[in-house]
């Protein structure tokens, strides 16, 4: 019905798909062929435009991130409203969820209800998996908004629908989580295997690590070449979390599991993102991610990305250290940049004092990496330290950060200046306006950027805690959700107007 009411939808999404596929191949070839030769020229040019924003000190004061993006937009931006490619059903569902998220009087009871389902031990009536009415209601609304599917087939179909809209692919995580209870010193898996005494199990084989490995192997069944597997490593249970707490590598069983996943991903053209978590575990996670990069990230290609949280004061120096490791050992640093999701539970003194400082930190890191001048590498001052091979992943719902990064990348490639490959990601069901706006920012060859939707799959029982977190995140991002709501309302009105003007 949507397609017949809005014939332009199908046309635009197919065009987008074809163009982005052609362009992507061209981009990969161009980058491989030209990046090395043009480094020195680019570094000189860049250095005159930004001087001191790439300091690798522990507490860089980001008074204001220099905007090195061109003031005139050199990209080809479509004149179609960004949300015009959204299928009608998706638009109406987003409008409903966004309306609820933007009104406290609607959101508070919805959150209470979701929270009740998350914590309910009911066997039938309030069991989201077994009660068909509750299951159906949640499935057609919040589940379909934020998750891909309850089975491999459903997930594959949803991934294909996202690709048909022009997205390069998905970043997929398996929803089943293993929580470590600090009081009982036990891990609790949701759904499948029974709680177990991990210490005893670790002697023979750690059941949580095995469950984690199987979950990720199953997730790999849902995705294909060009997609990304996201791994939350502390989900593998107590022995892994304990190792990370001391800044160590995880047990051999976990490293073997990660190397197995890496080998499969490399063979299948899938990338892996290691998610950033609480600082309590992060040193060990970083070490693990670097080991994986050392093994898999060769020939200028990042199979593995580590995640860096720009809200932490120390992040520039951590990135500088990892750049040094990449330069020394000759691997590509896969650098996924987020602002950070643990502000409520993290030691506050580790985080920038204001949100503006976090924004400036985020934008400075992106600009430094895209201009290949950061952390004592690249730039005129550091000619002895050429910038190592890096691939950047801008994971953010912040419109300004995302579009700034895209514009700077276009400007540099257009001027023949060196840069690094870049990709973008937003969570499924969130900031679609940002995602579709990015897809419209085509370069001079008509090539759209690589934009991914990050999602989760699993049965309702397994996803319900994830859904609650998304709802809470939407509640806390008041400004962003009201902007999203405005964009969704405008698009709905535009379609209604065009329907009645016929
Ligand atoms: C694809 C994808 C993958 C992600 N993976 C991870 C991950 O692995 N690990 C992780 O931690 N997060 C991850 N995130 C979550 C991400 O960190 C949050 O979505 C993000 O922090 C929201 O910021 P934003 O960039 O969208 O911009 P905005 O919404 O503009 O910024 C909000 C952010 O600013 C920061 N902030 C807010 N108030 C303050 C303050 N007073 N002082 C200092 N800083 C403040 C917080 O980080 C807050 O989340 C991911 C997000 C995406 C889209």
Automatic annotation (TrEMBL):
Superkingdom assignment: Eukaryota
EC number(s) stated in the UniProt entry for this protein: 1.5.5.2
Keyword match Endoplasmic reticulum: no
Keywords tagged on the record: FAD, Flavoprotein, Oxidoreductase, Proline metabolism
Domain Proline dehydrogenase positions: 184-478
Cofactor requirement: FAD
Any GO CC annotation of this UniProt entry: mitochondrion
Biased segments, Polar residues type: 70-80
Enzyme class: oxidoreductase
GO biological process entries: L-proline catabolic process to L-glutamate
InterPro entries (UniProt xref): FAD-linked_oxidoreductase-like (IPR029041), Proline_DH_dom (IPR002872), Proline_oxidase (IPR015659)
Gene3D superfamilies for the chain: 3.20.20.220
Region Disordered: start-end pairs: 33-80
Catalysis performed (reactions): L-proline + a quinone = (S)-1-pyrroline-5-carboxylate + a quinol + H(+)
UniProt-listed Pfam families: Pro_dh
Similarity annotation: Belongs to the proline oxidase family.
Name this protein carries in UniProt: Proline dehydrogenase
